[in-house]
Design a protein that fits this description.
Nucleotidyltransferase, domain 5, alpha/beta, 5 strands, 5-stranded mixed sheet, 142 residues
């Protein structure tokens, strides 16, 4: 007496063979993962003091957007300040706490020139080396 196999039994057989084939070629080994630094701040703290620069971006509304930048290009946003007196106080504090190597001042083309003068005066007051760039509407240096 011969047992007949139906199409469902054949389908199950083929499916199991395919499953076993995939398991045989699959990479089931343990994988190692590298943990990336949790914060860019920790990397900035390990840099030499003279490699840190501050980028001040002066806008038409009189606000200065600040970023601390390392020589390798790592950036740490520090927020925004408004007004010459506040800018002077913040630059003095950043020089003491972060040992600034210099300040890059970027002024939008639509901003008042006085904002650039205020930023230069604040740098000179704290004896921080500075560079100034005036930007056109597209954000490119002129």
């Amino acid at each position: 007496m011969k047992l007949e196999r139906g199409p469902i039994t054949r389908l199950i057989d083929v499916t199991l063979i395919i499953l076993i084939g995939f398991l045989a070629i699959a990479d089931l080994g343990e994988r190692t993962s590298l943990e990336l630094p949790r914060e860019v701040n920790a990397m900035l703290d390990t840099l030499q003091l003279d490699q840190r620069r501050l980028t001040l971006h002066g806008s038409a509304d009189g606000a200065y957007h600040m970023e601390l930048v390392s020589a390798s290009g790592l950036r740490r946003p520090l927020g925004m300040v408004q007004g010459a007196d506040t800018l002077q106080a913040v630059l003095g504090r950043l020089k003491e706490e972060h040992g600034l190597g210099g300040v890059d001042i970027e002024i939008e083309g639509t901003a008042i020139v006085q904002y650039a003068v205020d930023a230069v005066d604040a740098c000179d007051l704290h004896e921080i080396p500075r560079e100034i760039r005036f930007l056109d509407e597209s954000g490119a240096a002129q």
